[in-house]
Amino acid sequence: MIRNFLRDRRGSYAILTVAAMVPIMGALALAIDYSEMSRQREITRNALDAAGIATARRLIEGATDDQLKAYASDFFKANLGPVKPANTTLVVTLPGNNSGGGTLKLEANLKYDPYFVPAAAALLGKGSGSNQMEFSVKSEIRLKNTLEVALVLDNSGSMSYLGSGTGQKRIDLLKAASKQLVDKMADQAAAMKQIDKPVQFGLVPFAASVNIAPDNDDQSWMDTNGLSPVHHENFDWSKMTQANMTAADIAQIGERFAEYSGGMWRKKGAGWGTAVGEPLTRFSLYQDIIAQTDREAVPNTVRRVCKRYSSGRCREYTNEPEYEYTVSQYTSWQGCVEARPAPYNTDDTTATTTKPETLFVPMFAPDEARHLWTDLDDDGIPDLNSDNWNYDNDWWADWQDTTTKPRQADMRKYFRVKPYDAAAAPDGNGPNYSCTTNPITPLTDISVTAGKDAIKKAIDDMEPSGNTNVPEGTAWGWRVVSSPAPFTGGRSESEKGNDKVIIVLTDGANTYSSFGDQSYANNRSTYAAYGYAGKGYNGTSTSRIFMGTSSSVSKSTYTSDNFQAAMDETMQTVCSNAKGVNARKIDGQGNDAVVVMTVSLDLSESKTAEKKAIDAMKACASYSRTTIGKKLYWNATGANLMQVFKEIADELSNLRIVG
Fold it and tell me: With pLDDT > 90 as the criterion, what percentage of the chain qualifies?
């Protein structure tokens, strides 16, 4: 058929062919020009988006309006490639100063010179006017309004070691890197004049526990009435009930009794004075424990005192003047709290008295009794000076008892006055045992000098001591940026344009000191945020350190390795809850409710415990929103910690400008 068509010489075919070529060539010309125009428009759009991101960065760095517009134009033209800059115009609309971070708007108008359209127009008999084609593309960059960051920083004893590759202590390296981060973000925040509190930082120093500040002792979210099921975990008030108190007991502590009524233990008896009827709690214990702090001889008085007592009678007497003693409160609560029972130890559930297990309980480390009395005063009462004070946290004189375990929980002992010349407890011992860190610094606006200086001072004041409890530190970091109480400085979770970030750094594995199966009074561990590992509450045998963990963690193995395994699992739960169970994930990337950044310092994958800590920190981290597939985890050394915190600052900057 084609051969016949080509050999055909009749005029009708030629005429038809010529007639058909005009629309065919015109359509081809339009197709080619349309394809090229679409290509140039896409190039222009990409150049516009790139210019928008770059200009947004300059904007938060504080560039002037003229500098921003010139920078946007230069950046846009440099990325046009085959598109002629002369054929484009750029309009930059900077954010207004009325509210929020605003929106940076860029619009490019492009004139396209077609290749074939003029010829097609001539074939179609059109005029010779301008055949340029015009189109526009737009790009908007929504500037993040606000950023809230909690620095959750390890203050355990190992932070006093020298950082690898340096001659400085890890804690000092951390202070320098953290303050550098605050300074960089403060400079960006100060440039955003139109935003209220554009960048806020909080600080959570953690070790074996977390300090939420002693002036919070009267807050509604604290357990001020002893309602929480863990509040009396280590206390036995029944020894002080009126029915159980003997005449000898009353002779030593007076008519002060305990009574359970109205769902709480209360003060009963004439010995309490105006405080009768008030709750018996850890807070009241801190107030009621009294020591003789000073003494003064009473002139012209003599008292015959037994100096040496043995074999049932006094062997040597001496004469002393009578003394007047000054008594005062032995110590006060320093601000550390225990972990709430699962599942509330891993979330930011608002504390309420209608659900007592959500209330926060002050730490109170019991006096860990060890020895029975061996010496008696000449009146037959146990000598408060005779206790040898050499147990792990033996800080008070015990009540006389023939068995060991009840003596630790016997509350009668705390209501005797500690004598003036009694041996002092070892440094760090007492009811505040394991409370070694400074208080949390709530979210503070670092765009103002006072706020920036406050955070930096709190960083400078950090001192290393104690064990490592990363999950408890992380949980409190979340509560700092969260909007509900205890700390209410965070914006509402539903507010748009606001990012909440937790930055967690540790230099070691989770640690809870073990005493094994032979520990005194079934404690099986030192006392810290989870109480004693060997004790449960409300009659349960499972302690809080194991509650909420999977079957892979033994609930009856009291070793450091098993404690670490339990705490590592708890840490994953905290991070998962903070990030949000229903967070949107696309190809391993998503917008977590709270962005979690983690840093391990001077840890080696060749060491089993440290490898577990690295894996736990890596698993907790969020994915970057700007770099596909990148986990926000860094394994830092002392030598490169400063650089790591610079990279963290870049990620925080990205959060502020990427919608």
Answer: 56
Contacts for 403 with CB less than 8 Å, ≥ 6 apart: none
In the numeric block, the tokens 């301008």 are attached to 130
Query: C-alpha distances in angstroms, 130 versus 62, 479, 533?
Result: 44, 65, 86
DSSP H stretches of helix in 312-448: 405-409
Strand partners, 295: 325
3-state secondary structure of 22: helix
Residue 579, number of CB atoms within 10 A of its CB: 22
What is the Rg, in whole angstroms, of the alpha carbon atoms belonging to the chain? 37
Task: Please give the Cα distance from 500 to 403 (Å, whole number).
Answer: 53
The answer to whether 171 and 464 have CB atoms below 8 angstroms apart is: yes
| Residue 155 near residue 205, CB atoms below 8 Å | yes
The segments of the chain whose pLDDT lies below 70 read: 1-34, 60, 96-101, 115-132, 144, 193-194, 312, 369-391, 401-405, 516-520, 581-590, 658-659
CA distance 60 to 195: 12
Q: Model-level pTM?
A: 0.80
> Rounded to 5 degrees, what are φ and ψ at 253?
-125, 5
Classified as helix, coil or strand, 385 is: coil
Q: How far apart are alpha carbons 641 and 180 in whole angstroms?
A: 11
Q: What is the pLDDT of residues 623-645, one digit of tens each?
A: 998 788 899 999 999 999 999 99
pLDDT at 117: 55
Distances (CA, A) of 522 to 531, 545, 554: 12, 15, 17
DSSP 54-88: HHHHHHHTT--HHHHHHHHHHHHHHT-TTS-GGGE
State whether residue 162 is helix, strand or coil: strand
Token readout for 299 is 């002139």
pLDDT of 122 reads 52
What letter does residue 515 receive in the DSSP assignment? -
User: According to the model, what pLDDT value does residue 28 have?
Assistant: 59
Residue 435 CB neighbours (<10 A): 27
